[in-house]
Design a protein that fits this description.
globular, alpha/beta, 5 helices, two-stranded antiparallel sheet, single chain
C-alpha cells in the first residue's frame, strides 16, 4: 500500500518541480545557499556531502562553492552496483569545477579515485535530495533506497553524525507522507523559503538554527 502511494506521490511531485523555470531554479539555489550558510551546524562542519541536481531538483552547487571558499571538504555520492542485493553508495571528495562522469541515472559523480571514500558516519552534514517532504521530517526519495541503506544506522543512533538535511523547493512540501520502518528521517529541512525543524522525531530539540 505504501509503495503504491509513494510512487503516485513521487510522480506528482517530480512533475511539479520540473515546471520550475531555469531562472526560478537559479534564484532558488541562491536562496537555499543563503539559508544554509547561516546555520551554526554548517559553520562548524568540516566535511559536507551533497549531490548534483537533476530532474528539477534544487541545486546545492552554490553551497558547495561556498564550502570550498571556507576550506571545508565536500563530497558527492557515487553509486555502486554489485548485483541486485549489493547496491550501495559511497562518498568521494569533490572540488568545484571538477570533471564528473554520468552514472547510469545520468547524474554526475566523481570519476577518479584520487582520495579514499569517506565513511558516512564521519561526515558532518549531508544535504539530501528528495521528491517530497513533510513537517514531521519524513522524506520521499526517488525509490532506489540508496540513502536509506547508507544511513540506516541513524535509525538506531539518531544523535550520531552526520546531520541529515533534506533540501528542496518549497513546492515539494506535502501535509503528510507515508513511511516505512526502513525510511530514514530528516534532522532538518531547508527550502528556498524556510528552515524547518521537524515537529517530531529525531530533529526535535536538536538542531540549532543560528
Amino acid at each position: 500500500m505504501n509503495s503504491a502511494l509513494k510512487n503516485q506521490l513521487r510522480q506528482h511531485l517530480r512533475e511539479r518541480r520540473r515546471q520550475i523555470t531555469p531562472s526560478q531554479q537559479h534564484l532558488a539555489a541562491q536562496q537555499l545557499m543563503q539559508r544554509i550558510i547561516t546555520l551554526s551546524a554548517y559553520r562548524r562542519a568540516r566535511h559536507i556531502a551533497a549531490y548534483m541536481a537533476s530532474d528539477g531538483e534544487i541545486s546545492p552547487e552554490y553551497v558547495l562553492c561556498h564550502a570550498s571558499l571556507k576550506s571545508k571538504r565536500s563530497y558527492l555520492p557515487r553509486i555502486h552496483f554489485g548485483g541486485k542485493a549489493n547496491k550501495h553508495m559511497s562518498f568521494q571528495r569533490y572540488h568545484p569545477r571538477q570533471k564528473l562522469r554520468s552514472n547510469r541515472y545520468g547524474i554526475g559523480e566523481p570519476a577518479g579515485l584520487r582520495y579514499r571514500a569517506r565513511s558516512p558516519e564521519l561526515l558532518d552534514i549531508v544535504l539530501l535530495p528528495l521528491a517530497g517532504f513533510d513537517k514531521e521530517g519524513r522524506r520521499l526519495g526517488m525509490g532506489g533506497g540508496f540513502y536509506d541503506r547508507c544511513f540506516a544506522f541513524k535509525n538506531q543512533h539518531s544523535r550520531q553524525k552526520p546531520l541529515l538535511i533534506g533540501i528542496a523547493h518549497h513546492c515539494q512540501e506535502v501535509s503528510s507522507l507515508p513511511a516505512d520502518d526502513w525510511d530514514i528521517g530528516l534532522d532538518l529541512i531547508v527550502t528556498d523559503r524556510a528552515v524547518i525543524t521537524p515537529r517530531h522525531g529525531r530533529g526535535k530539540n536538536r538542531i540549532p538554527r543560528t
